[in-house]
Structures are given as structure tokens and as C-alpha cells.
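Exercise 7b. C-alpha cells:
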């Protein structure tokens, strides 16, 4: 633990990252009927926008997705590739926040990354494991992801980030 604290600066950072991982996992599992499958509205995906604030959240979000896919996903492909899709999404969100300076434009662009990565990668996983048409599963996952992250997620994220502006950054 001491090595982690030295590397990342404080135990409060580690606790916040762990909290995000746990919250993502719990939300996904509690809402399992809508979190898994060809038509999914994984409400925990709203949390991926935290990577917009601080790249340290990438760790917690990726771990949360990994645990969610272990406990309720569609097997090894989902554990590996579903987690990869989340890692790529949150990394792209963080990079977008760094390079596009207009806050609302960058947040809107950032919110599209999970739709792109999850529709392609998770759509393929579901198609492969469920023997459903690839284009159909990609569209279903993409629509669910867009609704959760862009339509619902942006307003929720703005509300949270406006209220707790200085308390969310881990730096």
C-alpha cells in the first residue's frame, strides 16, 4: 500500500478510485436486467465521464467494468474485450478533455467515445456469444450507450461537476 501511496501521491486518491470502481460494479450488478445483453442501458456508464476530470479515474472505471463483467457478463470474451472497450473509451475521454479546450464541445465529443468503442467491441462480443447478427448487436449496444452516456450522462455529469467542482479532481 505504501508503494501505491508514494506513486500516486495520497491515500485519498486511491480511495476515490476504489470508490468509483465499487460504485460502477454495484450499479451494474444491481441493475443487471438492463446492464447486460444485446439491449443494454448500463447506467453505471454515466461514471465514465469522470475520466474527463482526471485520468486517474481510468483505473477505477476499468476495474469496475472488469468486476462487473466477471460477475454478470457473457463469459471470457466479455471479461477481456468488454473491459478493453471501457479502457479505450475512458482513455479517449481523458485525451479529449486534454486537447479540446472548449468545455461543452469537448464533453460532447468525449461522450461519444463509449458509443463508438462499445458498439463495435461489445456488439461483436454479444454477436459472437449470442449468435445474433453483428450489425444488429452493434446498433443495439451503440444506441444504449449513446442514451446513457450522452443523453443522460452529460446533464448528470454537469450537475455533479458544477456542484463538486474542486472536490472531484484527484491531482
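Sequence design result:
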Amino acid at each position: 500500500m505504501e508503494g501505491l501511496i508514494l506513486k500516486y501521491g495520497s491515500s485519498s486518491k486511491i480511495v476515490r478510485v476504489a470508490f468509483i470502481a465499487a460504485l460502477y460494479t454495484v450499479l451494474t450488478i444491481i441493475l443487471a436486467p438492463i446492464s447486460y445483453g444485446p439491449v443494454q442501458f448500463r447506467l453505471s456508464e454515466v461514471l465514465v465521464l469522470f475520466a474527463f476530470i482526471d485520468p486517474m479515474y481510468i483505473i477505477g472505471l476499468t476495474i469496475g467494468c472488469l468486476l462487473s463483467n466477471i460477475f454478470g457478463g457473457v463469459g471470457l470474451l466479455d471479461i477481456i474485450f468488454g473491459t478493453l472497450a471501457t479502457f479505450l473509451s475512458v482513455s479517449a475521454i481523458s485525451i479529449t478533455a486534454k486537447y479540446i479546450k472548449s468545455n461543452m464541445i469537448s464533453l460532447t465529443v468525449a461522450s461519444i467515445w463509449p458509443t463508438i468503442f462499445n458498439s463495435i467491441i461489445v456488439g461483436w462480443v454479444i454477436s459472437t456469444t449470442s449468435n445474433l447478427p453483428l450489425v444488429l448487436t452493434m446498433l443495439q449496444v451503440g444506441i444504449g450507450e449513446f442514451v446513457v452516456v450522452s443523453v443522460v450522462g452529460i446533464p448528470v455529469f454537469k450537475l455533479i461537476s458544477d456542484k463538486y467542482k474542486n472536490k472531484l479532481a484527484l491531482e
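Instructor comment: Residues 53 and 78 are 27 Å apart (CA to CA). The mean pLDDT is 91.
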